Amino acid sequence: MENIPVTTYRGFSAVSGETTFTQDMADIKNGKHAKLIIKIASLVAQGKVEEANHVKKQLPFRTLTANYRERRLAPSITRYNPVITLDIDDLEEGQLEQTRTLINEDPHTLGSFLSPKRHGYKLFVFMQTEYTRRLYDRLRQGEVTYATLEEIHLKLYSAAKEHYEALLGVEVDGSGKDISRGYFMSFDPHAYINAALLEQISPLPARIIPPAKKENSPKKTPVETVHPLPASSAATPQDAKPWEKLIFSQAVTAVKRTTRFRAGNRDNFLFALGNKCYSKGLDEQTAIRLAKNEFGQEYPDVESPLHNAYIYTDKTSEAATKKEEKKPIINQVMSFLEEHYGIRRNLILDRLEFMPYALSADAGKGYRPMRGKDYNTIFVDLQMAGISCYQNFLRAVIDSNYAKEFNPYTDYLYALPPWDGTDYIAQLADTLTTENRELWQEGFKRWIVGLVDCALSDEDMNQLVIILYSEQGKGKSSWIRRLLPSEWKEYFYNGIIDPSNKDDARLLATRIIINMEEFEGVKPGELAALKRIIAQDNVTQRKAYDIEAFTLPRHCSFIASTNNRQCLQDIGGNRRFLPITVTGIDYHTPVNHPGIYAQALALLKDGFRYWYEGEEIEQLNKHNERHRMKDPVEENLFVFFRKPLPEDLQVKWLPASVILTKLSIFGKVQVNPHTQLVLVQALEKYGFGTRTNEQETTEYEVVDIQLYQ
Asked: CATH for 424-627?
């Protein structure tokens, strides 16, 4: 079989659709649900098993052995796959790897993965013995009733259970023998699938005749209340079966422990006896016959108190059953929500999102933010369904751990197929024609890998900022927007960040790319603040109406575009920036987002270093000099002074203030602390000799060029 269909659910019963076995195993291997699994493992390690079980219920639930149409019930069965689902639990940590090896090396194992709690395995088994082949043949003959299917399935399950218990020397969980046995999704990088065995499995053509649906009726005891037998009936106490006589005798003995059959108390005794017989499952007709035989000589009216007892007990049992069947309001609300809506908490945007399952105008649009109107709509739907609750109660249920966690970055990246080795990042980089292709290729690869690491990690940051320079109208911003797949379009921001603005600062945590368009408009003072933001690893804020401030990890990477070649200003170095001169842009080549991000993720896992260090920083600063706007003080310095040469005789040692005074006279440069600071930075940057005079003033070794003119 090329693939095996798997039924998916909303909750644990209502069918939501179908996927495939290989897709599920790929999601488990790639870590689609890794965050929840890590949380479960952490809770188990802390001994918080109940909390771990609650989190586990947030994982998607599947059935492989049987597929269903509407609900995970026998009348809804549509297909039987001859693959048995087994559970092995409660393994010691030292047993896990050895057990995994034995499982995966066995020829009957179709697939296996580590369970969500990390102390056992989920196995999918296709037995290939002569015995099981005969059972499969029975399922290939026309039609098969559900009862027959259950019988065959139990035999297949027992064969698989016995085989693996003998192989592994551990006990297989016997509670998984039902056809409807399912499994929770998990995370296991070493999840195993036997592709060769998968191809050998052929679908079973037999049509399954499901059992008829049972009518919805209150749960009742199997005891029937009947009218007393006529006196002329031929039935006698001797007609009662031995087990009925035994039950009656036990009931009499039990009642005699608390009361006596005597004058003035006979009705009470017989009423209590009727209650006891009813609870033991003895029908009223038989109880009356046996009671007449036991007590009829002393008290002729045995029937009335016994009959009253059966009527009273039947009604009270029915009322109690109805009360038991009526679930608490919170369970009713949660069941309704699970059946009609998908609700999740977006961890990046810190908001609730929902998706209606019903066939309505809004269905099929995917998840969208939960707004006040949506709470009201769900509240009305609950009332229409006969579930009465307060709006604040509904909000409390939805805005709780009930909403499953959703991370758009991990959800997309861990679902990607493994990288096939093609250099997709270089292909995307080549859609830009630049002055220095080698520098651009290397820098862009580092930036993309850094973007992925910053998106996935709460600690690591991407401190490299690519600046695309070209003439106006080339389409730099349009090219930047194409960097993200459609799933991440909402996590793109276009504009300069204002560090003093709380909403702007929050973008560091809620966006994956911030495109600083018109970068040449950044003022010198703003650039210093911007450099601090680029190196910032988190944002601490208090949301409106919240009591405490929360620290949000930064997940964004920066990129910029400019029409000005000389867009950098800091004389002290610009190692966080990589200006690239763009001469052409290709808009026709489609962007292979899955390939690009699968490659970036693979490089990251292999330890690719995406930051610059050592001599690389020196080379980067050297490249950036072409894109730096030099200060007038720095430019005038080399008009009037230079570094001494070995043969120079007119060498002077001058303080920075004296040099600045001459620059102000001949170069019209202002004299103030800022210009003096710029001058000192320039003198030190270009390696002018220094010494300290008797007044502890730093002097610089210079040659006055005017003396040679």
From this structure: 3.40.50
